[in-house]
Amino acid sequence: MKLKKPFASSVLIGLSALLVATPFFDSTTARATSENKYIASEEKTELVKLFVPDRTELDRLVATGIDLAEHVQEHDGGYEVHAIVTPSELAGLRLKGLDVKTIYTKKDLERRMNESRTKAEAVAKVTAEQDEVSILRANYFTNYSGTFLYVEAKTSAGLTANVALTAKWDSGKGTELGAGGEATLQRQDDMGQYLYHSLLIPIEKVPRQLKIESNLGGSQIAQVTEWVGDGKPDKQSPHYVSDFVDHYMDAAEITERIESLANEFPELAEIVEMPNKTNGYRRHAQTILGDEEASRVVITSNAYGSEGGNEIAIKLTAPEQANGDLAVKVSENNITVQLATDQEGNVTSTAAQVVNALNKEARDLVKATTYRGNAGTAVVSPVGLAQLTDFLSAPDSISRDPFTVKAIRIGKHRDGSRLGVLAYSQEHAREWVTPLVGIETAERLLRNYAHDSETKKLVDNLDIFIIPTVNPDGNNYSMYDYNWQRKNMTNYCADTVYSSPDFRNLWGVDLNRNHSVGSVFDGYTGASLNCTSFGFAGPEETSEPEAKNIVWLADNNPNIKFAMNIHSYGGYFMWPPGAYKPETRETLPRPTAGEEAYFWQASDVILDKIKEHRGTVILPSRTGPVPDVLYSAAGNSADELWYNYGIYAWDFEVGADIWNAETGEWESVGFQPEFKEGHQEALEFSNGLIGMLDVAHQYAKDKKPPKSKLTPDKGQYKQPIEMAFESSEPATIYYTLDGSRPTFESSKIQIKDVREGAGTLLVDKTTTINWFSMDAAGNVENRYNPDSNNKSYNTSTIVIK
Questions:
Q1: What family does the Swiss-Prot or TrEMBL record give for this protein (predicted)?
Q2: Is 70 considered catalytic here?
Q3: What dotted CATH number matches 133-226?
């Protein structure tokens, strides 16, 4: 199935007219331009915002396959949409009269990436050796409200936020260190400079000794002394520690962080290795020979560049004599093509002839094709020695091998006996903030466990899986090669007209369009079957190892009942359904009214936690089912988890717009904001993730059945009447209207319509309504069992006279 080509519609400043008139919006063509040998246009791409007049035009824009951000804002009667465009696309948009404004360019991103790399290098240097720990202060004091321990300590590795200091103390003479308790110290910074770590915590018994240990191996012991004076606890210094991320991270560093945490806290955490390895941060080596399209030859190594392809070189030579024959010579990794000549010594070999000769004589090393599928009828010109390259820019320290995706599993009981919660991020590679949310959350859970009762409650009673990066190959490509990379690095364009290296930034599969529910293969919109589309769904459902890993985790851990898919940007909080069919906007089945109410109820808790950090409010207009607040996303992973596994699955879009009081406008933050902003996003959405854990914990504890009633109640009425169900908590109502026993197969109350509450029943004749309710946790009203013979369901007879 292929998406339809653009079509026309008459609108003011018509987007549809733009789609018809400008071929670069055609989803069946690539966005690269033939004038640029090695995708120079894509190297200059920009993140821009543009305005479309209505929802229909928005859906049509999504269907074209243009690279859209998950950011849509309704205002002034239309929709502001963010997109990543090439210079030619940008010119076309402006030529058609659309108001297009640049948010930021690749040059801005290069500066941010360099800052992050510099920080990462500094971190690596600092953490390579055991640090030195100095205890600056170890005091206790007693005031009107109790006895407190106050500690200040410093580490020589204070440059990096992932260095953590933990205090252990005794409970008096003759007791061991740790007998009195342990806690993680809070990092103290000022103006971006590390000062020290500190701890203020209530204690029951005064300790004699205290030991500070660093996760890098440093430690020191000190005597605990009394603080002189009327010390008063600082209520602004919480016992809860946070803020463990200080730069953007590549896939290797992300994985090392969770492995380090699991090693440090073996009683509370372990690493789960996903069984499906990625393709790897690797590409086949390539080069393009020739200047004109009809005379160009594309050479692709059989081996990946990192496995020998980068060692291959080729040249095209013209013999000095006339009437020379076309010949190919291979010597180890060097290929020489001697071009044919006529009687006057002029080269006569065409691109197609050179391709055929290479594929016959050098097929053990390379594959040759004409450029972009043309006939190759033009004569080629001699070319000096050309080295094949995979065009990958990451340092050698970044592995090119298939990557084992890893999760950190956190919980006191990691045997499936506790309610499971899954958080996963970076399905889309360019969303650099999202892995930091998972890293920050893992750090908080483990480092606060020993001294924070709320954290201990969560870790003791939940089984928490965090996958910081689902898409490690794409992560590396985004951070080192092409910052706008959305997809993974599996190349399904290899045998198409898009196989030449100037399309390399368009290859890959959108992992959040590769799942089996509501997919493009089933007729849902918001994905593409074109291998260059930024919403490419892959050759088939769940074709990619990264998508298979999510499914594997759900299959093998049936205790998982909650999931959060973390994306950026725009500040959204969404849930299923996530896809609809074109034209009719027929969505996947909506949750029942009770399930929808539970999604909303949970959002109150989660969004409140996000707001606590710096006041960020996720707007009501950006909260709700995906189709209601964004656009269709065929084959997304949240739908996979909800419809196939019954997991309550949400989507974060971190990075809410920021209000600029001076301009009177909301300003977007983008995929890779200045780290100062990205840092805050990671912290506030880690709050939100903790909020979801709170919701899950309450769910796990919930053993109380709901209660429900019918309004108005049973009785006699002179005319048809509209009946509504009310319940004590979000609950699904199962009912019958024919006097039969209600079961789980009976009709269910659904929402009235988009963004509305529960529907009602119109009773226009005498009817007996039998029903029961079941809450989100599976508790059934009155302990009713539909499979038994008891009659503890509710019943009401409405008489219409």
A1: Belongs to the peptidase M14 family.
A2: no
A3: 2.60.40
